[in-house]
Design goal:
Pfam families: Glyoxalase_6. This is VOC family protein. With about 130 residues, the chain is an alpha/beta fold. It has one domain: 2,3-Dihydroxybiphenyl 1,2-Dioxygenase, domain 1 (Roll), CATH 3.10.180.10. The protein is built from two helices and eight strands; from the N terminus they run E-H-E-E-E-E-H-E-E-E. The strands form two sheets. It has a four-stranded mixed beta sheet, covered by helices on one side. Strand 2 and strand 3 form a beta hairpin. The longest helix has 12 residues. The two termini are about 25 Å apart.
Length: about 130
């Protein structure tokens, strides 16, 4: 059976992107970064099967495409506070006009232009 190990984000400046995502998620480097690759894990993750999604950053030289075909959804109990914190870390608001009236997410992008949504986690929907 397969499981998702890491989501890989393409970046131009691995140090800047690493600093942003470590601060945003509280993650740590799995090992010493190379010039073009680093995997970030939740703190305390020591094995492949441990819970928590990992993020890898890869310098590939490919330009960013917008809109991207893949993005992260980050869950927030206090969406407003998290958005302000992420903006202070260097995230940028995306000028996007596709929100439905009942949207519970806001689209941001990281320091490298990778888009992600900050989702307001209200009551968990059940069956």
């Amino acid at each position: 059976m397969l499981s998702i190990g890491s989501t890989v984000l393409t970046v131009e400046d691995i140090e800047r992107a690493g600093a942003f995502w470590r601060a945003a998620l509280g993650y740590v480097n799995r090992s010493e970064p190379s010039e073009d690759w680093v995997i970030l894990d939740p703190p305390g993750k020591t094995g492949w099967a441990d819970p928590g999604a990992s993020i890898a950053l890869s310098v590939t030289g490919y330009p960013q495409h917008h809109p991207p075909r893949l993005h992260l959804d980050l869950y927030a109990e206090d969406q407003t506070a998290e958005i302000q914190r992420l903006l202070a870390l260097g995230a940028r608001e995306v000028d996007w006009h596709g929100y439905p009236d009942d949207a519970d997410w806001i689209v941001l992008e990281d320091t490298e232009g990778n888009r992600f949504c900050v989702v307001d986690t209200g009551p968990f929907p059940t069956g």
